[in-house]
Structure formats: C-alpha cells, structure tokens
Design a protein that fits this description.
With 225 residues, the protein is of the alpha/beta class. It contains 6 helices and 15 strands. The strands form 3 sheets. A 6-stranded mixed beta sheet has the order 3-6-9-12-14-15. Strands 1-4-7-10-13 form a 5-stranded parallel beta sheet. A 4-stranded parallel beta sheet has the order 2-5-8-11. The chain binds coenzyme A.
Length: 225
Amino acid sequence: MILEGLRKDIRGIKERDPAARNSLEVLLLYSGLHAIMLHRPAHWLYNHKCFFLARLISQLSRFFTGIEIHPGAKLGHGILIDHGMGVVIGETATVADNCTIYQGVTLGGTGKEKGKRHPDLEEGVMVGSGAKVLGPLTIGAGAKIASGAVVLSSVPPGCTAVGVPARVVRRPDAAPKAAAELDQVHIPDPVSQEICRMNIRIQQLEKELAQYQQEELPEQTEEQE
Ligand SMILES: CC(C)(COP(=O)(O)OP(=O)(O)OC[C@H]1O[C@@H](n2cnc3c(N)ncnc32)[C@H](O)[C@@H]1OP(=O)(O)O)[C@@H](O)C(=O)NCCC(=O)NCCS
C-alpha cells in the first residue's frame, strides 16, 4: 500500500512537471516528493498522538527540503510540490489528489479562527508561486490560484482567482477571450484592400472614358465633313 501510494506520487509529478525525466530522478532529486514521503510517517504518528516525534520528523523535513508541512495536515496522492522552498501547509489543511503547489505557497490561517483554520484544496487545484490561501475555505476542484494571490474566500471549482485580495477572473463556462478566437493567419491587410478598391475604381473610370470617347468621336467626324 505504501509502495502503491509512492508510485501514485511519482506518477503525479511526472505527469505535471515537464522537467521530470524519469521515476528514479523524481524519487532521488525532488524535494517536494521527499517532504511528502516524510509527511506520511509524521501524520501517522500525529494520528497516534505521538505529537513530539511527529513534529520532529516535520522539522527535519523542513530543514532538508525547505517545505513545512504540519504533521496534522491531510495530503492525498499525486501532489506536486514544485521547487518547494518556502511552502507552508498548516495543521488543519487538506490537499486532495493531483494538486500542484509551487514555491512560496502558504496554506495558512488568518490568525482569527480556532479549530479548523486552514484551507481545503479539492482535487487537481493549482496554487501559483507565492500565493497565500488563508482561512478555513475551500478551493474547488480544478481551480487555479494565480501566483502572488492572497485568497481569503472560497473559490468555486474550475475558476481562476488572481490578485490581492483574490477575485475570480475566469469561470469554466466563460466564453474564450476574443484574442483567442482571432484568426492569427488570415489577418486582413488594409493596404492591399485599399489598392483593390482603387483598381476597381480605375477600371470603372477607364470604361466610362472609353464610352465617352466613342460618343464624342462620331460627332467630330460629322462636323469635319
Ligand atoms: C493564473 C494562471 C494560472 C493563468 O490562469 P488562466 O485561467 O489561464 O488565466 P489567464 O492567463 O487567462 O488570466 C486571466 C486574467 O488574470 C490575469 N492574471 C494572470 N495571472 C495573474 C497573476 N499572477 N496576478 C495578477 N493577475 C493575473 C491575466 O492578466 C488576465 O487578466 P485579463 O483578463 O485582464 O487579461 C497563471 O497566470 C499563473 O499565475 N500561474 C502560476 C504559475 C506559477 O506559479 N509558476 C511558477 C513556476 S516556477
């Protein structure tokens, strides 16, 4: 079961980090994976009320990886903590399967709540570098939190939240941006369009001139006679 979990974790990293070349590299060189691997026994000890040992493992993990995961936090599988340094995950936070967390992310409390005070990330959430997600709120499945955002309220599934304080700027049912729909290949050329218009006009004028000359010519020959 432990090995199966580890396999899922490695697969999750390989699927979502284009820089990950093979499983061995991920296993040996990814500090995000090391932090999660160390968190598993720490969480087990925490659940069995061995708080000191749990915290000791968590602190050792922090020392070696730069990632601080409280032993009480509940983590799923296939989570990618990319780069890792500066990530803090609080005691009552939950992170579901296949989430991506970049460096400098805090899943913390606001300092105002007691008991459940950290966020829940549903499946497949992406939290950008340096983002702070604060309070007992829920980030819906597949939502994206922009880098540098400070999230203080729940984000619905599939949405993108940006800014300080974060606001939802994109919903899954939203129409694509006009720029995305623009045909970048067949862009109309205003100069060639104008030349075309002038060509048509010149042809019309030439026709009219020819007609005019034909009408004028018989009159002149009659006068000469
Ligand atoms: C938010 C993000 C995921 C893009 O999501 P998206 O749903 O594709 O959203 P878009 O790129 O269409 O951006 C939507 C709007 O948010 C704005 N926006 C995007 N990222 C932003 C950010 N970090 N801060 C502020 N505004 C941001 C865009 O400018 C755009 O504004 P507009 O509609 O006025 O043009 C991406 O910009 C991001 O922040 N990724 C984090 C990646 C990261 O941390 N990488 C670190 C690797 S080491």
